[in-house]
Amino acid sequence: MFRLVKNALLATAVTTVLATPGMVSAGEKYGFGTTATAEEIQGWDIDIRPDGKGLPAGEGSVADGEELYEQLCATCHGLFGEGEGRWPVLAGGEDTLTEERPVKTVGSYWPYASTLYDYIRRAMPFTAPRSLTDDQTYQLSAYVLYLNEIVDEEFVANKDTLAAVEMPNQEGFFVDPRPDVKNNRCMKNCADPAKLQIVGTLQGVTPVGHFVEGADAPAASHQAQEEKERSLHGETVEENAADTLALTEDAIAGRETYDNACQACHSSGIAGSPKFGDKSAWKGRIDQGMPLLVEHAIKGFSGETGMMPPKGGRTDLSDEQVKKAVAYMVESSQ
Amino acid sequence: MSNPIKSLSTRELMEQLARESEGLSISDRRDFLKKGMLAAGAMTATTFAGTAAASKNLPPMEPSWGRQLGAGVVDKPYGQPSAYEKEVVRRTVPWLTAESIASISMTPIQDLKGIITPNGLVFERYHAGVAQIKPEEHRLMIHGLVERPIIFTMEDLMRFPSVSEIKFIECPANGGMEWKGAQMEALQFTHGMLSCCEWTGVPLRVLLEEAGVKPEGKWILAEGADGSHMSRSIPLEKALDDTLVVYAQNGEMLRPEQGYPLRLLNPGWEGNTSIKWLRRLEVGDKPWYHREETSKYTDLMADGRARKFTFVQETNSVITNPCPENPIVKSGLIEIEGMAWSGRGKIKQVDISFDGGVSWVPANLKGLVLDKALTRFSLVTKWDGQPWLLQSRAIDETGYVQPTLGQLREARGTNSIYHKNSIHSWKVEANGGVKNVQIS
User: Fold this and answer.
1) Which of A51, A176, A263, B403 has the CB geometry, 3.0–4.6 Å to B310, for a possible disulfide?
2) What dotted CATH number matches B316-437?
3) Tens of pLDDT along B416-440?
4) Residue A184: its chain B contacts at CB < 8 A?
5) Can you tell me the distance from the alpha carbon of B118 to that of B96, in angstroms, rounded to the nearest whole number?
6) Chains A, B: CB contacts under 8 A, how many?
7) ipTM of the complex in this document
8) Quick check: B353 and B364 in contact, CB under 8 A?
9) Using CB atoms, which residue from B91, B157, B349 is nearest to A220?
10) A53-78 mean pLDDT
């Protein structure tokens, strides 16, 4: 009896203690996190708005943009913005938006020039985002507008001139009006069976090898597709045996750099780059000797099949890191 | 249980449809049906007999796995699916994109059960590959039109009371390859940009209250920490309603592919707005019109003008059994099964048609029926080799009825890429094979 009473008292006491800190009054804040400083915000606040809010100081001309564009952008987007392979087309396409196959480019579709600066600043060049200076971003914005014949060759982009550019398709957008169709829950005689049209599937464009025996369908991965395309051209790609090779210490050290930087292009052979593990693509290069290969990787190089920007655009990498990454690629591709 | 194909007139209709689609005469068609049935039956028998003859693991024999020991605990500290499930994987359609780093893969929804997508099978969409983020160095910054700009560590965020909610996430381009015609020969590619998980995190409302949104604040810019720094403008109304800042899915921390260690989740809205690797939220008075809400994720209409801020994933559904990957292998009873979902709320009803949309019968919803979550539907019926033109039609709690492809095309043309939520059609052939077709 005494014991029971004691336990009951203890339970009451515990409940009271627990309940008190559990109460949070309305409107009370948690107070978690730290107040962001102006400097911290400035470093990350990269966005631009159509009214020019966010555009930094600095400027860039069409002429300077042309040089930079050819160095950094043309391998994917084409010299005139026409787009290589399946990479985005940047220029042209005027008056195609109502056609069967519209060409949506900066000039034919984008409503605001500010978006160009914002996007280049946050995501381009593809292999080295956030590597451009504010001036370089102005230069490239100016040049892409020039490619679209929206500005003339004298144009210099800055926070005032860029925000003032009027894009051809600025009025081409309107707010989502959905729901825009109204179907009814009909249960019987909902359509005239005599008028039904049945259209089959366009065959041969879907990877179906996983469930259709003997299907000669497109490859199911980008790598497999590329190998298939190569084999159609009579080339063979050796199996990537990197994991089973005995790599040198330099090469092992270079693997991380490769994974974080080089593989963006070299894993799939973007922009004519020799693909990791592709012995035939690497042989001629390796034959020239490591010092020259490393020099090209560090300083940049334009070859027959493509263009290697200095350090692949990753100028934040040290020469030593690039050298080791080259060693990793070479040893894995011979 | 019901068998909707019973009236003679319906069967006649089906034969007429089959004839039109295959150019066969009625007598040819009947022969074809018979042959198809024989072939299917023979194939099935051979397959099973073949397995039985070769195996010593079937009754009356004792299976080998019952006569030996298996691996012990923590043999695999993180468990993996059975080796026999190696075909249940994400797949891509490589010609869609230039390479794999800015690309998309699809969930094998043809193989999944229930409404939860396993973490390793959630569809992928990257614009600069998978960011590898050290959680102790990840930060979420909230600033702009707020009383107090704040930087949160992951530890800070996980101190807030958490919520867990089951929501689907879908790319608005799901099905987008088929505006002009059917071209995907598999369910994984027609509807696989779709997953559903239990997400755990903090309501964005709580974090915004913490920062104190100024009265002029109307929009939020959400931005990722990956190489694309993906950004979308989101109306404050949504942010204060049901948007979550998420750090876990299906009980474990987010997968890198899904934005580890932190992502946004806008339930029912196009997946692109649910920014992964979330690092920054800025409050502003106007939208930003960034690339992913102008050049992309706008819906081009036939007249050359485009819809913007088309956020909602409208009511949709698809039959997962049968489907091209899951043909009917035996005649007799069959459960027609599928999934329905709506970005506006709960699924109220799903109907099924066996004749290309001429007549419909109600299916049953089964399991959990949740707001903005995948919902399973089911109808048990009988198949005896007759051709079917199978369709499902979902209705959500707002009364919206999933439209036909013809209705969508009439309203929007065929160049809008996104938000194709029309009724989908499978043609079940006499041998039980299933083909993707479009009916108009």
Assistant:
1) A176
2) 2.60.40.650
3) 999 999 999 999 999 999 999 999 8
4) 401
5) 25
6) 291
7) 0.88
8) no
9) B91
10) 96
